[in-house]
Write a structure and sequence with these properties.
heterodimer; A: alpha/beta; Amidase signature (AS) enzymes; B: mainly alpha; Histone, subunit A; two-stranded antiparallel ribbon; asparaginyl-tRNA synthase (glutamine-hydrolyzing) activity (chain B); GatC (chain B); transferase activity (chain B)
């Protein structure tokens, strides 16, 4: 039962074929069997999950039809969860028990979801491999020597290995789409502002966006229906009419105009991924789509602009961790400045400190115009590239990543790792919605196809992804977990 | 561009981070590598481009000036490393 989709589990629960308690216990058993190897969860909430499951079963008996009633979910550990440890993958929050729930968590709970626990992630969402987590790297269920991607690596690994039915993640430069691609699952980054950021521990506020990691596009639509919506507590959340993201799933793709950016099929792309994505696009052509090449001339500059804007915003956001109000404080500070400096230096990991330094430098007196303002100008050029492309096409398709999941400890420096996000990062600068769906295998590892649509056109994305999943079965492939576990012992 | 040890120490101080002498060189290298990646931006002429601060150029929303939060001081202060009588305690700043 645990391998089923959210849609299938909902039907099974409604038909009385199983109960939320049975289902929750089955996921807890799977976690007990595999989390030690996968390290997908930082915190597992077995008792409260079973209590929530009992409450869900009672609510169903009393007539409730909440959309996620009784379905077990995992939240990325940067969503604040009241009464539950919330670390953001950092030592500096190793003892932080959140006093409130993030809006996303609240909405999932109101929809009846059962929280199994909190998933592993790169520290403060800064990374593409999960290796910067203070709690150790999560592993890729397809191959334990490989990374699950990041920063939402724990969420992706948990969904892929059936350690939950669905998970939340956040995406600042690719942190939902890239781990979804590496783990062979479906991930959606909504348009900026579509989902409330309240209670998400901030990395880069003008780029951060929450979204679902799950098994199918159909599930992603169900989850987005619950997550999306304006929130008074997040002034950047967008007030749009309520939309049913499931409504257009079955629309025909006849006449759909697909753009393939030539910059995303260029040097640096693994040739086997190139072939896999082109044959995936051919499947969409069979469904009536028409394909043309498009030009995103400023693609190369997106990474440069991102590594100014994101660290600049991070340096401001992370100034709140000072050892005064919550979180880690160093031992025996000699004075206030020593306390700030040592609490932060001992509490943050290397990558986080590096980004704080970059951001502080870019914002410091004399450098603001050359770095931050310049990056914001490039940001507009990147956005205009996409706007121009969308005058000619309905969706833009390409690979999610240039290569499949890489080996643990194989990235020799930060810059090499940053370049892994070359196809995903521009969407965050432009605020656009994007998805990654499984589109094949290279060297036994899953790879992802990225689909991008106009501002707020998530329904179109989900439609294309769902239709693709009706004629392919890449998303139904499962990693052989017991074999994987054996490999590790040997 | 490559940062000097003095520059690293200055930035670290602005960011309230402690960098030891031995770490400074490694930090300078790590930060300089990233600045190398960033400097690709400088090759593009952006003189007539308006900076984009928000992906949809949205402006800040306003709401009525009303109290919406409840007082949870005691509960929130339980999270502090040190607090007393409703105050956060830090090392002595004034002799």
């Amino acid at each position: 039962m645990i391998e089923k989709t959210v849609a299938e589990l909902s039907a099974a629960l409604a038909a009385g074929e199983t109960t939320s308690v049975a289902l929750t216990q089955a996921y807890l058993d799977q976690i007990a069997a595999h989390n030690e190897t996968l390290n997908a969860y930082i915190t597992v909430c077995a008792d409260s999950a079973l209590a929530q499951a009992r409450a869900a079963d009672e609510a169903r008996a009393a007539g409730s039809t909440a959309p996620l009633l009784g379905i077990p979910i995992a939240h990325k550990d940067l969503f604040c969860t009241e009464g539950v440890k919330t670390t953001s993958g950092s030592k500096i929050l190793h003892n932080f028990i959140s006093p409130y729930d993030a809006t996303v968590v609240e909405r999932m709970q109101a929809a009846g979801a059962v929280m199994l626990g909190k998933t592993n992630m790169d520290e403060f969402a800064m990374g593409s491999s999960n290796e910067s987590s203070y709690y150790g790297a999560a592993r890729n269920p397809w191959n334990l020597d490989r990374v699950p991607g990041g920063s939402s690596g724990g969420s992706a690994a948990a969904v892929a290995a059936d350690l939950c039915a669905m998970a939340t993640g956040t995406d600042t430069g690719g942190s939902i789409r890239q781990p979804a691609a590496f783990c062979g699952i479906t991930g959606l980054k909504p348009s900026y502002g579509r989902v409330s950021r309240w209670g998400m521990i901030a990395y880069a506020s003008s780029l951060d966006q929450a979204g679902p990691l799950c098994k199918t596009a159909e599930d992603a639509a169900i989850l987005l229906n619950v997550m999306a919506g304006v929130d008074d507590k997040d002034s950047t959340s967008i007030d749009l009419p309520t939309e049913d993201f499931s409504a257009a799933l079955n629309d025909s793709l006849e006449g759909l105009r697909i753009g393939l950016p030539k910059q995303h099929f260029a040097e640096g792309l693994n040739p086997a991924i190139d072939r896999a994505i082109r044959s995936a696009v051919a499947e969409l052509e069979k469904l009536g789509a028409v394909v043309k090449e498009i030009d995103l001339p400023n693609s190369d500059l997106a990474i440069s602009a991102y590594y100014v804007i994101a660290p600049a915003e991070a340096s401001a956001n992370l100034s709140r961790f000072d050892g005064v109000r919550y979180g880690y404080r160093c031992e025996n500070p000699v004075d206030l400045e020593d306390m700030y400096k040592r609490s932060r230096s001992e509490g943050f990991g290397e990558e986080v400190k590096r980004r704080i330094m970059i951001g502080t430098y870019a914002l410091s007196a004399g450098f603001y115009d050359a770095y931050y303002r310049k990056a914001q100008k490039i940001r507009r050029l990147v956005k205009e590239d996409y706007a121009r492309a969308f005058e000619e096409v309905d969706v833009i398709i390409g690979p999610t990543t240039p290569s499949p999941a890489f080996e643990l400890d194989s990235m020799k420096d930060s810059v090499t790792m940053y370049l892994e996000d070359i196809y995903t990062i521009a969407l965050n600068l432009a605020g656009l919605p994007g998805m990654s769906v499984p589109a094949g295998f290279v060297d036994g590892l899953p790879i992802g196809m990225q689909i991008v649509a106009k501002d707020y056109a998530e329904a179109k994305l989900l439609n294309v992804a769902h239709q693709f999943q009706q004629v392919t079965d890449w998303h139904k492939q499962k990693p052989a977990l017991s074999t994987a576990a054996k490999t590790k012992e040997a | 561009m490559a940062l000097t040890k003095t520059e690293v120490e200055k930035i670290a101080h602005l960011a309230r981070l402690h960098v030891t002498d031995t770490e400074a060189e490694e930090v300078a290298k790590g930060v300089s590598d990233i600045l190398g990646l960033i400097d690709k931006m400088q090759s593009i002429d952006t003189d007539n481009v308006e900076p984009l601060a928000h992906p949809f150029d949205a402006v800040q929303k306003l709401r009525p000036d009303a109290v919406t939060e409840t007082d949870r001081r005691d509960e929130l202060q339980k999270l502090a490393p040190q607090s007393q009588d409703g105050l956060f305690l830090v090392p002595k700043v004034i002799e």
